[in-house]
Amino acid sequence: MKKLIEISLGIVTSVGGFLEVGSMATAAQAGATFGFQLIWAILLGTICIIFLVEMAGRFAAVSHHTIIDAIRERFGFNAFLWPLLATLLVNFLVMSAEIGGVAIAAEFATGIGFQWWALPVAFLTWLLLWKGTFGFIEKGVAILGLVTLCFVVAAVMLKPDWEAVAAGAIPSLPGHDAANYWFMAVSILGASISPYLFTFYSSGAIEDKWDKTYLGANRAIAGLGMTFGGTISVGVLIVAALVLGAHGINQVEDYHQLPLMLIPVFGFWGFVLFVASLAIACFGAALEIGLQQAYLVAQGFGWTWGEDLKPRQDPAFCGVYTLSLLLAAIPITLGLDPLKLTIFSMALTAASLPLTVVPFLFLLNDERYVGEHRNGVISNAAVIFIIALGFVLAVVSIPLQIFGGS
Amino acid sequence: MSPLFPVRCRSAEGRNAPNSKSRHADAIRGKGWAAEKWRTARPLAEGVALLLVLLGLAACSSSQPIEKQSALAASAGQTATMVVDAWASGAAPTAYASATLQSMAESLAAAGRQIQSDNSQGRAVVTAIGQLSAATRQAQAGVEAGNPRQASQAQHDLRMAAADLEAAAKPIAPKS
């Protein structure tokens, strides 16, 4: 019974981690511009992240190492420096975008410009990290994040043509605006296969003191949780296609356009639900990425770390998230458009994938770490596929940013 | 069974503070270490700098063809219409509706400027975008004044201008 509750909470937590400003914005843009045609990109991203999260959790449960910790130990500091810098940079941009997402939600709710909210949001995030425990942060925000299910409810209420939805699950060539189509596909994959998701998950497994008895729970949480999160993203895409696209809003270039997705379905409550969904999903992601920045640096340099420790026990760890949050709030305070930053950072996330995924191939096959629980043929094939996909995305993302980006 | 490797998530207890002599030696070693690390990291730093320059250039490349600007303007016009609808039915708060209309008016003005500077053939498109922009401003004034009649009139103008834009943009739209 206890395990069942833990699995349920884990699934809910995974939803909270999956859906953030990147997945919401990219799905909304894709749905408005290309209808259901890019559902396949969300499905592909979801399948990839299920594999990576399962491996990260299995690795942590068996070896009692996080992925980052093991990369440094197994490959040495010089090799570790590359993924460290790439991930720190990408996480910085994504965290800034998440703070921007909460700031936009605050602007919608109050009418006060988003720039004014960036520092208060960063402070509130810092306060929760400083005072809260890992369990409180992980589960509290995740349970609140269930509000994002309103997109799935809206999608069902809009009665889409399910055959057309199913057809969107099969990759197809665009009828128009090819560069933008592929740029959107890359951004969706970047939003779905975020390195912070699986590196945070492995740190969480250590914080929650997982061992081999959690391998089954890990599989269930990775599979069901990420599928659940992917379903909500598909819900956002369907709603965007049936509301924004159907009203002739085919170009979503401004964050003010996003609440219009839910208003025709739920009326004023649609506006409220959108604001709550955006605020909670982005706030949860900002908390997770803030922690992840601290995990990255602390694990990389071998410092004492742990969200459940008192700040005086791991001052450097706390210092990293404090500085990260402050720096990430600056671009939004200066008025950088959060939606443009989001789309840009998602494409960059996709481009950085090979650096963080290649080590999986070695670590998950190293018997010194995972013993008999090393990768099988299917898991290795999945990692090789994700690495190949990551290389393609790394090569194409910059030209697409120039020719297809907004 | 104990794990093969120690867990890194450790408490601060039991960690001895180094004495001043060893701190000094660490500092000297640290300089050499830093230089060595910089030699290793330099190609990476140069690569990151190049990537950032490329991405910066990408972000600054805002020149887009008339088709793209027409599509952006049409979406902005539809957004304005939808927001006025939502505000009139009480489904969108005044602050949000006003901010959205202002943002759409700015997007429309920017789209008009972009076409003017890029293409002298698109005068009809520019005129229609100008009408859309003016109607959006009018709608914003109506919303801010809490005047549904003015907003409704502006909405009518928005629909007319949107139809004009569609007609003007049709000859230059790409064949799908």
CA-based shape of chain A:
globular
According to CATH, the fold-level topology of chain A is Amino acid/polyamine transporter I
Order of helices and strands of chain B: HHHHH
What's the architecture of the largest domain in chain B in CATH terms?
Up-down Bundle
Unreliable stretches of chain A: none
Count, helices of chain A? 18
Please describe what this structure looks like.
Chain A has about 400 residues and is mostly helical. Chain A is built from 18 helices and no strands. Chain A has a single domain (about 1-405), classed as Amino acid/polyamine transporter I, CATH 1.20.1740.10. In chain A, about 75% of the residues lie in helices and about 0% in strands. In chain A, helix 5 (about 75-110) runs antiparallel to helix 14 (about 270-300), helix 6 runs antiparallel to helix 15 (about 315-335) and helix 16 (about 340-365) packs antiparallel against helix 18 (about 375-405). Chain A is globular and about 55 Å long. Chain B has two domains: about 20-60; about 65-170, Up-down Bundle (Four Helix Bundle (Hemerythrin (Met), subunit A)). Chain B is flat, with a radius of gyration of 30 Å. Classes of the chains: A mainly alpha (about 400), B mainly alpha (about 180). At the A-B interface, helix 5, helix 14, helix 16 and helix 18 of A face helix 1, helix 2 and helix 3 of B.
Features:
heterodimer; A: 406 residues; mainly alpha; Amino acid/polyamine transporter I; 18 helices; B: 176 residues; 2 domains; flat; disordered N terminus
Structure at a glance:
The complex is a heterodimer of chains A (406) and B (176). By secondary structure, chain A is mainly alpha-helical.
